[in-house]
Specification:
Helix 4 packs antiparallel against helix 13 and helix 13 packs antiparallel against helix 14. With 268 residues, the protein is mainly alpha-helical. The protein contains 14 helices and two strands. The protein is globular, with a radius of gyration of 22 Å.
């Protein structure tokens, strides 16, 4: 089996070519945007980048900084919903209610088929009650974003669940005297590390890039802040977009590294 997979795998040169082509596709617009932000009639300049950190212009760029803080808070709350509510529910369905898996999968994937504008129409009456109960802070969008990321998180986590013998692991741990919280946190979660990390990354990416729901529900996030700044200063909007992309790329590297470290410890 290993011989067959080795024959089907692309050669080292082919992998390098694919990597260079894919990297070029992503690098060209990134480099073009960087050149756009530093070009001027008099040559190259970094004055537009330095202006972002000028205290005298802080009020001008406040919508973006406020939106960034709100988006990061939303990302943390949304990831918490995925890890501490959605993932345990998936494990419970797989162990105790396997016959409900198809119905659960249908419900989890349903949001991807519904346009964001339609979701907002359905969520608006709910958010009237949420606003009266919890206030109108931007963090309350996490309830809507938790629904929005379900299809992506489901696929990532379910792939990891299918790759292990969940029932045998849980029964073995229970036989040795472990309680269900211990089984979930110390036995199942480490074996689902890759899926949980992927679901977390996708959730963060969706939250940082979402605009429609936040705009229509009148919440200030990163994307709405970029729209406001773009009307005042197109260069600043491009710079903030580059910083957001760089942050997402750095987060991808960190999560990928964490996954490899965990896999190395698991398989010495």
């Amino acid at each position: 089996m290993a011989v067959v997979s080795g024959l089907l795998a692309p050669s080292r040169a082919t992998r390098w070519i694919i990597g260079v082509v894919v990297g070029g596709v992503f690098a060209v617009p990134f480099v073009a945007t960087v050149l756009y932000t530093i070009s001027s009639p008099d040559g190259w300049t970094l004055s537009r980048w330095a202006a972002l950190f000028d205290p005298e212009l802080a009020s001008k760029y406040r919508p973006v900084w406020t939106g960034l803080v709100n988006s990061l808070t939303l990302a943390l709350v949304t990831v918490a919903i995925v890890l501490f509510l959605f993932a345990p529910t998936m494990v419970l369905v797989s162990l105790r209610f396997p016959r409900l898996r198809r119905a659960f999968e249908f419900l989890a994937l349903l949001p991807i088929t519904i346009p964001a504008i339609v979701l907002v129409v359905g969520l608006a009456p709910i958010y009237l009650q949420i606003g009266r109960t919890f206030g109108t802070g931007a963090w309350t969008l996490a309830f809507a974003y938790g629904v929005l990321v379900l299809p992506f998180a489901y696929r990532s986590i379910q792939a990891s669940i299918d790759a292990i013998d969940l029932r045998t692991l849980s029964e073995a741990a229970r036989t040795l005297g472990a309680g269900w919280p211990s089984v979930l946190l110390r036995v199942i979660a480490p074996n689902l590390r890759q899926g949980l990390l992927a679901a977390s990354l996708i959730s963060v990416a969706v939250v940082l890039g979402e605009f429609t729901i936040a705009s229509l529900l009148n919440r200030q996030v990163l994307q709405t802040g970029l729209v406001v700044i773009n009307k005042q200063d197109a260069w600043a909007s491009a710079i903030f977009t580059l910083l957001a992309l760089a942050f997402a790329f750095l987060l991808l590297l960190i999560i990928g590294r964490a996954g490899r470290v965990g896999a190395g410890r698991k398989n010495p």
